[in-house]
């Protein structure tokens, strides 16, 4: 406050003195603030702090919980083969799953940015996030079925395989000892005697179920005789209901249409043909004096695809189901970051002659680095506690090969031979694995806020 003086100058009046008690900005007493926080602190202590403290305490005791075990439970984490498999699989999960999901999310976000149907595509990719882990596990348990008629993955895989390598129609066909054929090695069969022009050659086989015969199969019959050719019949020497004779074409027996027959001289194929629907075939004069061979390609086992849930590929298969669920999450976050990028930088780079790949690699990705870090770290924390998908998708004979720490924690704590000491040690170990990732995320968030 200003007051006039004799010389005309103004003097400043000091503000009134305040009391010694200092109030908060809101004027609320600390005891009242603590009262509001107390329910949350009680829940935090009961649901977070106490379980962590008890787990640490219990991890130093034996199975019964009465004897002090020291660090024995922690030593067992790195000596037990089953737990070591879980640790190895967790490492694979942490490295592969977040990387692949983030990469796919980045690709989807960038490629759908300029298309009119991009929003619809993002919606479709994000939809798996609305499905629970339990439902996703059941879905992919069916997708990975070994039978191509039931499992989508093997249906596609077998379809692609058969496009380039057609499977045999008669995978288990074979001759009897009384038949004029003998094994030639490698799954092939040859005639016991060389053939001659004008000869009718019988090539009977068994081992094919009548129900598995081709739909266009016809009743077998003897071929017409040709003096300048070698003719014959390849047929299924089996009469349903019995009554047939070996080496004789009976009235109810079917021809092996499509069977490949080769004429071989001195180890060299001089002529070849395929049997007609009624089993008849004809070879040129080159076959005179040759042995007739049924190559192994006639009897190749039908390709049934990949054993997705077998011990070798069960972990990558389950990671694939996880990526299917979480790629949409990564895409949405990255798309939000992509929308906030300064467009003038991108356009300036294009004006300077940079192609789209250079713009993406040198400008888009560096500017999106904070967002990519958020997505990757979030997914890393998420996969460290993965449990549902592994427990549901992996069958019993592959469960140990697909084991992860969260699943091992459940089995050790609540399985048939429960050991809460080991289970608590695994829980503490998981906590120690999560803490560095959380600290990195907190540090990065503080750095972003300080800019």
From TrEMBL:
UniProt-recorded name of the protein: Carbohydrate ABC transporter permease
Stated family: Belongs to the binding-protein-dependent transport system permease family.
Membrane topology type: Multi-pass membrane protein
Spans traversing the lipid bilayer: 31-53, 91-111, 123-144, 322-341, 367-394, 420-442
Domain (ABC transmembrane type-1) ranges: 87-441
Cross-referenced SUPFAM superfamilies: MalF N-terminal region-like (SSF160964), MetI-like (SSF161098)
Claim: Transmembrane is one of the keywords in the record: yes
Stored InterPro entries: MetI-like, MetI-like_sf, UgpAE/MalFG_permease
Span list, region Disordered: 1-23
Organism, as annotated: Streptomyces cremeus
Localization, UniProt: Cell membrane
Keywords tagged on the record: Cell membrane, Membrane, Transmembrane, Transmembrane helix, Transport
Main localization category: membrane
């Amino acid at each position: 406050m200003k007051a006039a003086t004799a010389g005309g100058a103004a003097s400043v009046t000091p503000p009134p003195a305040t009391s010694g008690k200092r109030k908060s900005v809101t004027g609320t007493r600390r005891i009242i603030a603590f009262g509001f926080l107390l329910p949350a602190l009680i829940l935090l202590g009961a649901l977070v702090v106490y379980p962590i403290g008890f787990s640490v305490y219990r991890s130093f005791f034996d199975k019964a919980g009465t004897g002090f075990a020291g660090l024995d439970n922690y030593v067992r984490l790195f000596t037990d083969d089953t737990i070591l498999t879980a640790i190895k699989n967790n490492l694979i999960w942490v490295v592969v799953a977040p990387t692949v999901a983030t990469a796919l999310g980045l690709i989807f976000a960038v490629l759908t940015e300029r298309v009119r149907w991009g929003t619809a595509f993002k919606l479709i990719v994000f939809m798996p996030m609305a499905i629970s882990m339990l439902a996703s596990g059941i879905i992919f348990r069916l997708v990975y079925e070994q039978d191509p008629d039931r499992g989508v993955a093997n249906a596609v895989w077998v379809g692609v395989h058969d496009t380039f390598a057609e499977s045999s129609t008669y995978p288990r066909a074979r001759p009897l000892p009384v038949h004029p054929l003998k094994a030639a090695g490698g799954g092939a069969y040859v005639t016991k005697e060389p053939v001659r022009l004008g000869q009718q050659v019988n090539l009977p086989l068994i081992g094919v179920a009548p129900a598995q015969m081709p739909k266009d199969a016809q009743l077998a019959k003897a071929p017409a005789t040709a003096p300048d050719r070698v003719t014959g019949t390849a047929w299924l020497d089996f009469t349903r209901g019995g009554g047939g004779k070996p080496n004789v074409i009976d009235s109810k027996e079917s021809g092996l249409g499509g069977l490949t027959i080769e004429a071989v001289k001195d180890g060299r194929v001089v002529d070849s043909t395929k049997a007609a629907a009624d089993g008849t075939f004809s070879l040129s004069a080159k076959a005179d004096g040759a042995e007739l061979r049924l190559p192994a390609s006639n009897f190749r086992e039908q390709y049934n695809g990949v054993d997705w849930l077998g011990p070798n590929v069960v972990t990558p298969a389950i990671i694939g189901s996880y990526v299917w669920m979480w790629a949409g999450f990564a895409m949405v976050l990255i798309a939000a970051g992509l929308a906030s990028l300064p467009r003038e930088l991108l356009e300036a780079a294009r004006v300077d002659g940079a192609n789209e790949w250079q713009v993406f690699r040198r400008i888009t990705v560096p500017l999106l680095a904070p967002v990519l870090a958020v997505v990757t770290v979030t997914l890393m924390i998420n996969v460290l506690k993965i449990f549902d998908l592994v427990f549901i998708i992996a069958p019993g004979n592959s469960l140990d090969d697909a084991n992860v720490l969260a699943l091992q924690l459940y089995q050790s704590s609540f399985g048939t031979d429960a050991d809460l000491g080991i289970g608590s040690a695994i829980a503490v170990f998981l906590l120690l694995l999560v803490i560095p990732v959380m600290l990195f995320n907190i540090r990065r968030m503080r750095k972003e806020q300080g800019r």
